[in-house]
Design goal:
Blueprint (H helix, E strand, L loop, with lengths): L11 E8 L6 E4 L2 E4 L3 H6 L13 E7 L2 E6 L1 E2 L8 E8 L11 H13 L6 E5 L5 H11 E2 L5 E4 L12 H14 L5 E5 L2 E4 L4 E2 L8 E2 L7 E3 L4 E3 L14 E2 L8 E5 L6 H8 L6 E6 L12 H11 L3 E6 L16
Parallel strand pairs: 1-7, 1-8, 8-10, 10-11, 18-19, 19-20
Antiparallel strand pairs: 2-3, 4-5, 6-7, 9-17, 11-12, 12-15, 13-14, 15-16
Helix pairs in contact: 2-3, 5-6
């Protein structure tokens, strides 16, 4: 089936899908679910909603700084907004385990976007759900002066399973990326587009696996249309070249959750880890923590601050208000 004459005049956006791994691209095997190579041919090409049968037009993709290759692309049918989305899948040579991802993996994703920034209108990143919110947050700081949509998504069930959420999550990501100029790092899941660095995973099995407790969705897909909350969308106030920051290193930062009965010695042990530069301290309510006998806990924290360790106090509560500090804090 080829393009009709009417389709030749319909505009199309170009989107690069970067497949890093995750449940969305897995298939059954004797060893359980394993990553499936050839995701575009096996998972997308046979599905009419991802392939209008117009032919696999070649599209250039940068695999490295000097490694430019031509890959076969697919195109979605015409949307209600009278536009096609032409896309191609770039599979990482070594698929990432989302539960083990670190700054090196984030850098690999950022570089893939940077190399192809001038070739595509938008980017969709396929990623495992375990650390999806973390990757969204990291990329939001690594991608500087971003002027195009970058949408991360995944699924609770693989695309190749009969019952899955992968189809809607990926198609929704493609539609938003190819039709709406939302120049942010976003997370799309279960018909909702969230600001990436305001999300958290809240369910290990529900299709509504992610939420944004303190920021409303940027967009929601319904049966009739895609509703974008434009006043919430970030808009750059100046024009600068797109760059990436790749010197991110989280290995010197620890996270500690306060609990009733925690001993000051436990906190001190973490704060004295070799090479530690910062600690995220998850405390009660509006930032409360036990002082300990004779204010021992307070002394442990004060000593660490005096040694140059940065301590960020965050609440354990999902839903928070805001408060202003009228003056400097002293410990």
């Amino acid at each position: 089936m080829g393009s009709s004459p009417d389709n030749l005049n319909v505009p199309e956006s170009r989107v690069l899908i970067v497949m890093t791994g995750g449940t969305i691209c897995m298939k059954r095997s004797d060893m359980g679910f394993v990553p499936a190579r050839g995701f575009q041919d096996a998972g997308l090409a046979p599905r009419p909603s991802f392939n209008d049968g117009s032919g696999a037009e070649p599209v250039d993709v940068m695999f490295g700084d000097a490694d430019r290759r031509s890959l076969r692309s697919l195109r979605t049918p015409i949307s209600i907004y009278e536009r096609h989305v032409r896309y191609v899948v770039l599979e990482f040579e070594e698929l990432l385990d989302s539960s083990s991802i670190d700054a090196k993996g984030w850098t690999e994703i950022a570089r893939a976007i940077h190399r192809n920034y001038q070739l595509f209108d938008a980017f969709v990143i396929l990623h495992g759900t375990d650390s999806l919110a973390y990757t969204c947050s990291a990329l939001s700081f690594m991608l500087q002066n971003l002027g195009k949509p970058v949408i991360l998504t995944g699924s609770q069930a693989p695309m190749l399973e009969l019952q899955n959420d992968a189809t809607d999550n990926l198609l929704g990501s493609l539609i938003i990326a190819g039709h709406f100029m939302i120049p942010e790092v976003c997370l799309f899941f279960n018909y909702k587009l969230f600001r990436g660095n305001r999300t958290t995973k809240t369910s290990a099995s529900e299709f509504a696996a992610f939420s944004s407790p303190n920021h409303p969705p940027l967009a929601t897909i319904t049966s009739l249309r895609t509703d974008v909350s434009w006043p919430l969308v970030y808009r750059p106030t100046h024009i600068n070249p797109f760059t990436i920051q790749t010197n991110l290193d989280t290995s010197h930062v620890a996270c500690l959750r306060i609990f009733p009965g925690i001993k000051p010695e436990m906190v001190d042990g973490v704060l004295r880890l070799n090479g530690l530069r910062g600690l995220i301290l998850e405390t009660f309510g509006a930032g409360n923590a036990p002082g300990g006998p004779d204010s021992a806990m307070t002394k442990v924290i004060a000593d660490a601050v005096n040694r140059g360790i940065i301590i960020v106090n965050v609440t354990q509560c999902e839903w928070i208000g805001s408060s202003e500090l009228s003056g400097p804090i002293s410990i």
